């Protein structure tokens, strides 16, 4: 690994790391540029939660490396449009951790989608069929996923699902890497037979899929409890409550979410049930892959200055990894938990009454500057709507500050329909809680908190000139070569000590075909970089 001409890290003399997409205890996922083929890719940098692991526990470090290589090999064996494609693997040999180079899926994860609210049954059924297709292809190759959950389902810009993160996949010919008595997975979505230490089979992946669809339509997890141990006990002993919002999806959930794996229908039957669920409401006028829930109607007409949100999509994935010990069913079970999608109801709050603009510095000059230094006149973009306006951003940040007391952030994303932030925990420079803000819902806490990684540092937003946002959007329309932008959003790029890069505002434009371009600007609106679509 070295530094390229831009000063960014370059992996294997080929993959230039551009920005962090997500991270957790098992490392970091980066957006990168393939310098040879001139395309964007995702690069998974594997790092253990404890950087000293190789020194005091070399055997665990060796097994981690083997697990990562196994993920790449498992994925490479499964050629399917609903399975993320592996392009390349960078392996430095014993004593190192590999880098996995994958296709970049631009539409965010299913967990991001569900953070905005439950799905309609038909929408969930269509996503479920895509994930099921991926599982059937994997099962045919002898690969079980073992960790099907919303965070591991990515969505293409048109909404089609892509199954990823086969890092804990069990391959029939190579199961010895899972230590005896160990269960690997996420407790919320783990089938009962895997909780008890059994190997499980394809039917266990079907349980996880059905539980994910239950959460998608009901908006809560039926077996999640206050602790990991209590959740595992509920999975083993509690019946799944009948769904209330599933409609035509109900038969799938009721037939698959049964404790005896032999009593569950096979994948072909599940596919037929999902197809029937999708077709049962086709006459309602829904699209093939609806991307957002219908906008709630306010009980009374909004005031003239009320900001009305428009649905948007959140990108990025939040990946976490913790290790917990659980004593269950009379024996000791060590559980390696890879992520936790959390209960979206945790910490939820009603609409905030604070919608006044946030005070702070605001320049009256709304011009911006291109990288060449030539000034660009101020402009108003048709993309500057809802939350993606100076007033919308200030209102959201004011409401979040009033609700949480937080003033420093590790991440900020602004869509027309909502704003999401990673707000730093008081007294910590690394830990954060995640929140979303919508005008009709107020500030809501997400279960997807975490820890900053990849060299990112927290930042205060008090000196940001939000009045420059419309001009930046107008410049993006002009320069990014995205003919019909359908998904504009603003993403804060925090300062990064690894790359020695300053804080920046990044404007993304994407069309319905996945063509994406972006530009970076300083907090005061001076453009520092323009990357057109296809560049």
Automatic annotation (TrEMBL):
Enzyme Commission code(s) on record: 2.7.11.1
Residue stretches making up the Protein kinase domain: 15-274
Gene3D superfamilies: Phosphorylase Kinase, domain 1, Transferase(Phosphotransferase) domain 1
Residues covered by region (Disordered): 284-311, 340-387
Polar residues bias (residue ranges): 349-383
Single GO term (MF): protein serine/threonine kinase activity
CDD domains xref list: STKc_PknB_like
Lineage of producing organism: Bacteria, Bacillati, Actinomycetota, Actinomycetes, Kitasatosporales
Protein name according to UniProt: non-specific serine/threonine protein kinase
Ranges of Pro residues composition bias in the record: 291-304
Residue sites binding ATP per the record: 44
Keyword terms: ATP-binding, Kinase, Nucleotide-binding, Serine/threonine-protein kinase, Transferase
């Amino acid at each position: 690994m070295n530094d390229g001409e831009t000063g960014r890290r370059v992996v294997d003399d080929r993959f230039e790391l551009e920005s962090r997409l997500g991270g957790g205890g098992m490392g970091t996922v980066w957006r990168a540029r393939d310098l040879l083929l001139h395309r964007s890719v995702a690069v998974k940098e594997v790092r253990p939660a404890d950087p000293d692991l190789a020194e005091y526990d070399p055997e665990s470090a060796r097994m981690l490396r083997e697990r990562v290589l196994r993920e790449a090999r498992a994925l490479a064996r499964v050629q399917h449009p609903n399975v993320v494609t592996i392009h390349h693997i960078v392996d430095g040999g014993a004593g190192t951790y590999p880098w996995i180079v994958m296709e970049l899926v631009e539409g965010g994860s299913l967990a991001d989608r569900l953070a905005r609210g439950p799905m309609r049954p038909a929408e969930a059924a269509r996503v479920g069929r895509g994930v099921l297709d991926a599982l059937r292809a994997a099962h045919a190759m002898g690969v079980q996923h073992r960790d099907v959950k919303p965070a591991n389902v990515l969505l293409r810009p048109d909404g089609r699902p892509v199954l990823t993160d086969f890092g804990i996949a069990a391959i029939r010919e190579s199961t010895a890497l899972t230590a005896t008595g160990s269960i690997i997975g996420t407790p919320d979505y783990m089938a009962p037979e895997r909780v008890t230490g059994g190997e499980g089979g394809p039917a266990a992946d079907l349980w996880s899929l059905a539980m994910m669809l239950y959460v998608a339509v009901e908006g809560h997890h039926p077996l999640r409890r206050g602790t990991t141990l209590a959740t595992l006990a509920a999975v083993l002993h509690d019946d799944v409550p009948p769904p209330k919002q599933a409609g035509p999806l109900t038969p799938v959930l009721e037939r698959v979410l049964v404790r005896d794996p032999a009593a569950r229908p096979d994948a072909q039957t599940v596919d037929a049930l999902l197809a029937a669920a999708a077709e049962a409401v086709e006459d309602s006028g829904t699209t093939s892959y609806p991307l957002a829930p219908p906008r709630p109607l306010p009980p009374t007409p909004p005031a003239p200055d009320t900001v009305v949100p428009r649905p948007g999509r959140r990108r990025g994935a939040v990946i976490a990894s913790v290790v917990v010990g659980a004593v269950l069913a009379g024996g000791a079970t060590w559980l390696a938990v890879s992520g936790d999608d959390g209960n979206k109801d945790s910490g939820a709050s009603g609409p905030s009454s604070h919608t006044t603009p946030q005070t702070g510095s605001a320049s009256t000059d709304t011009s911006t500057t291109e990288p060449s230094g030539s000034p660009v006149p101020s402009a108003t973009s048709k993309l500057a709507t809802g939350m993606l306006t100076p007033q919308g951003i200030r209102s959201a940040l004011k409401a979040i500050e009033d609700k949480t007391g937080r003033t420093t952030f590790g991440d900020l994303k602004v869509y027309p329909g909502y704003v999401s932030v990673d707000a730093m925990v008081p007294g910590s420079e690394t830990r954060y809680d995640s929140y979303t803000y919508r005008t009709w819902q107020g500030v809501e806490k997400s279960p997807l908190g975490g820890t900053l990684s990849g060299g990112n540092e927290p930042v205060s937003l008090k000196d940001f000139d939000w009045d420059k946002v419309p001009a930046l959007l107008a410049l993006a329309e002009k320069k990014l070569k995205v003919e019909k932008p359908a998904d504009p959003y603003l993403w804060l790029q925090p300062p990064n000590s690894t790359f020695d890069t300053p804080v920046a505002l990044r404007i993304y434009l994407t069309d319905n075909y996945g063509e994406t371009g972006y530009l970076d600007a300083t907090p005061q609106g001076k453009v520092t970089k323009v990357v057109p679509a296809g560049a």
